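Re: [help] complex structure
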Amino acid sequence: MKTLQILGTGCPKCKILAETTEAAAKSLGLEYRMEKVTDIQAIIGFGVMMTPALAVDGVVKVSGKVPSTEEIKKILSV
Amino acid sequence: MGSKACCSPEVARGVGSPDGPAAGESKNSRRYLLPGILLLSGWWLLYRSLAPFSGWLTYDVFSLARGSHFASAVEFFVFDTPKVLLLLTLVVFGVGVARSYFTPDRARRILAGKREAAGNVFAALLGIVTPFCSCSAVPMFIGFVTAGVPLGVTFSFLISAPMVNEIALVLLFGLFGWKIAALYLGTGLGIAMIAGWTIGRLGMEKHVESWVYQAVGIGAERDEEEPMSIADRIRYGYEAVRDIVGKVWVYVVLGIAVGAGIHGYVPENFMASFMGSGAWWSVPLAVLIGIPMYSNAAGIIPIVQALLAKGAALGTVLAFMMSVIGLSLPEMIILRKVLKVRLIATFAGVVGFGILIVGYLFNLVL
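Output below.
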């Protein structure tokens, strides 16, 4: 089961990223657990400087932008 | 730097080009060449035809009376709206591509360990080309500070990033000519460097929230990002246009509408009475008014244009613009998470003072 973490302090883009990621994961039929990380210190701990960011199983895959559903699907299928 | 509207796009990590490297890349790049040339020519033709078009539309099609307030306002609006949007699109694309070469990570690595003075200069310059967004101010600040970038140097970056804005620069260039654009660039950088250096000299490290320094340092061993192909960079520029222009155009149109109103209805030299170089208090007032105002660079410039046309002094208007873009109440509130109030106040004070000096200087000299 993959752990998907959305890193962001709550700006609108973070919400969009969360929704898009969820949609992508569902359409792939992935077993996943999604978590929203809003604590600044935790976000820094990932080495992220631009939010929003998406981490899969603890590794940051995208930061600073909201990728399309297709792009997220590609990331999740690896 | 970046518009004050939220985050600009950035490199997607780990997603490289699916095609094989060399062959796929040159094929992709060449695919963009012809459409690119066509688009640019089209852009240029459109741009040149705007002045005659707006005149024709206002006076021939709408049959408005020449010299009437309403006609002036309409012509201004019809002319300026597509003009600004065209300039904006071109600039955001160009800067987007340029930016694909710079990431906050890279900026951090360049600045880490640089001493004051040299560091301030680099930081201010990097602020122009590194993507920046108000919501990223906090993570970026922490990232810089924990990587060993001195506080003053970090501030130089934080000041120049939002204030010396590529959108503002190119719009200024397009509407007022290169001298004014260069002036804005020079003074903006100057303020960023000197204010940052001053804050560094004041030794206010203890006014940074203590947890920041204790934060786990951002791993220096992040994966090196995969180099982007030309095609990737073009796509990056295109996405920048879609994101930024898509978000900003409303403000632009609003700003132009306000500018059109001022242009059409405010009598000549009205602004001179209170924004002219005569009134000594006009510069501080302009700076103060600008602080709570939040506008992205694109929207404020038409207003600037109209104010100048009505007799406002250049220094005062520049001060107003810098204050609106560079000193933002929302950003200061966000920074409260990592900075204690004294430091935020110092930051606003030093930058505000710098803007003031610039305002007075230009009113005196020009």
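The two ends of chain A are 13 Å apart (CA to CA).
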